């Protein structure tokens, strides 16, 4: 019975904790803008909210209702040729049936009264007649044939002001935000549009001298459309106001509401220690994760000069040093005894040859810098081809599987018989164990011998190994 209850809990917990993601599809692939950089950025904005699963389609022509059926919202980062009747009717019906549409920057422009100029435009090179339903969906259209011409002045920095601060997209945000972007003007607005935000289009930059609509919503059938006129390039998308308004607008288009910001899990606090050994700066990219907050100590003495128990969850040693005074050693030991984590990485295997606490209880390894007690010094060899194989199931090993790297091998070290080996290698110039955990009453300890230079740093298996080791030693 107990076992059954446990099984039920294991099954039920992730379901309860993880609400279903909103499914967004981005149409991209043709634009008079750099869609190859903007589309991935838009995707990332949505993914970073934790609320979306996002797919990208770079060739919308020929799509059908079945293409769109799984999605809650369609995002258009597209400015190019028409899609053909099947695909266009599918989009109309998708939105009208009660789904969401986000029209981003130049996506308000195509299918209008003039051919689109520039790269990657029409398939035929010929003018195509306007798609009239598209104007209704967007809530506006561009006029290139009749004055005043729809367009924009020079790019510059300007404030975007919410005109409907009570709307779910704007609710709780500051009354305005900065944009560094094009400021579109001269839109031909369709009936039923609700303008959420405007910006003053200064004549000094070629503007109209009036407030111009920037963000708006419109209903199309049962569906919700959110139009975002900003976003000329990635720098424009990086503006905090853009990211917030785009993500919230997409959520509103998908659902009709915007949930309060997720409180977010606290980040893992990591202290990275280097010193006494050179390394490639690609090392830093190992910590490029949104859930990590890491500090860098450039020597072990700097790392442990004070009590760090309250500051960090785990420490990663990529130093190669012998000297640590009594007070610093005590801070290190207090950190471990407080039940924190230690990751020993690569050349840190040669740390503290004269500190048995370190190599017997923490790293589980001693790289002999010189012969000792009749035993020869350990050896290293650069740029060897290592085949590294999982040896045990463990959260640190995860689903990484076998690795094949060009890395440095160490041989002739003392390795603790207490080590629980997670990965091994069979190279003649390397000791067999490559990765292990050390048992400890309170702390969590992982040692990884791999990781000499940029070749290892770039290997995705190695990168996951380091991240898993950080997470696990931090108790995550
Ligand atoms: Zn633009
Ligand atoms: Zn090395």
What does this structure look like?
This protein has 476 residues and is an alpha/beta fold. It folds into two domains: 19-255, Rossmann fold, CATH 3.40.50.880; 268-473, 3-Layer(aba) Sandwich (Rossmann fold), CATH 3.40.50. Helices cover 24% and strands 27% of the residues. The protein contains twelve helices and 24 strands. It has helices at 2-17, 35-48, 65-68, 85-96, 132-138, 234-237, 240-255, 300-303, 326-337, 356-362, 454-458, 460-473, and strands at 22-27, 52-57, 73-76, 100-104, 140-141, 151-152, 156-162, 176-181, 184-185, 188-189, 194-200, 211-220, 223-228, 268-273, 292-297, 314-317, 341-345, 365-366, 379-390, 403-411, 414-415, 420-425, 433-438, 444-448. The strands form five sheets. A nine-stranded mixed β-sheet has the order 2-1-3-4-13-12-11-7-8. Strand 16 (314-317), helix 9 and strand 17 (341-345) form a beta-alpha-beta unit. The chain is elongated, with a radius of gyration of 29 Å. The two termini are 29 Å apart. One zinc ion is lined by residues 33, 105-106, 182, 232.
> Which strand order does the major sheet show?
2-1-3-4-13-12-11-7-8
Taking pLDDT < 50 over at least 5 consecutive residues as the criterion, the unreliable ranges are 4-16, 118-122
The largest pleated sheet is described as: 9 strands, mixed
Percent in helix: 10-25%
CATH architecture of the largest domain: 3-Layer(aba) Sandwich
Q: What is the H level of CATH, i.e. the homologous superfamily of the largest domain?
A: Class I glutamine amidotransferase (GATase) domain
């Amino acid at each position: 019975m107990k076992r059954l209850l446990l099984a039920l809990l294991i099954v039920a917990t992730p379901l309860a904790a993880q609400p279903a993601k909103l499914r967004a599809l981005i149409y991209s692939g043709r634009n008079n803008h750099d869609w190859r950089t903007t589309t991935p950025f838009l995707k990332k904005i949505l993914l970073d909210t934790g609320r979306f699963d996002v797919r990208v389609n770079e060739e919308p022509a020929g799509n059908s209702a079945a293409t769109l059926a799984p999605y809650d919202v369609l995002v258009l980062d597209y400015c190019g040729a028409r899609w053909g009747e099947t695909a266009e009717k599918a989009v109309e019906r998708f939105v009208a049936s009660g789904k969401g549409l986000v029209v981003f920057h130049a996506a308000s422009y195509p299918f209008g009264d003039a051919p689109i100029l520039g790269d990657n435009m029409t398939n035929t090179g010929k003018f195509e007649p306007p798609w009239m339903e598209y104007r209704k969906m967007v809530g506006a259209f561009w006029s290139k044939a009749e004055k005043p011409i729809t367009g924009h002045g020079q790019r510059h920095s300007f404030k975007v002001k919410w005109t409907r601060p009570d709307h779910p997209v704007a609710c709780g945000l500051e009354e305005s935000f900065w944009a560094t972007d094009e400021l579109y003007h001269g839109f031909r607005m369709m009936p039923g549009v609700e303008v959420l935000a405007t910006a003053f289009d200064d004549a000094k930059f070629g503007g109209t001298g009036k407030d111009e609509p920037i963000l708006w919503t419109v209903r199309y059938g049962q569906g919700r459309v959110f139009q975002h006129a900003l976003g000329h390039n990635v720098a424009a998308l990086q503006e905090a106001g853009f990211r917030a308004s785009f993500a919230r607008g997409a959520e509103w288009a998908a659902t009709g509401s915007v949930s309060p910001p997720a409180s977010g899990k606290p980040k893992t606090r990591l202290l990275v220690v280097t010193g006494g050994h050179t390394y490639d700066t690609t090392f830093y990219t190992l910590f490029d994760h949104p859930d990590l907050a890491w500090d860098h100590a450039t020597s072990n003495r700097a790392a442990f000069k004070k009590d760090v128990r309250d500051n960090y969850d785990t420490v990663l040693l990529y130093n190669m040093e012998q000297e640590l005074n009594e007070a610093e050693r005590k801070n290190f030991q207090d950190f471990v005894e407080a039940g924190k984590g230690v990751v020993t990485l690569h050349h840190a295997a040669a740390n503290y040859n004269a500190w048995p606490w370190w190599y017997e209880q923490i790293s589980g390894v001693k790289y002999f810098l010189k012969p000792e007690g009749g035993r020869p010094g350990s050896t290293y060899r650069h740029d060897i081809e290592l085949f590294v194989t999982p040896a045990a199931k463990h959260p640190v090993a995860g689903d990484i599987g076998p690795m094949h790297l060009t890395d440095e091998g160490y041989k002739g070290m003392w390795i603790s018989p207490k080590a629980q080996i997670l990965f091994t290698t069979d190279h003649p110039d390397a000791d067999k164990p490559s990765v292990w955990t050390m048992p400890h009453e309170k702390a969590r300890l992982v040692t990884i011998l791999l990781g000499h230079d940029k070749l290892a740093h770039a290997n995705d298996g190695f990168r996951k190994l380091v991240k898993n080791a950080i997470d696990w030693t931090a108790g995550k």
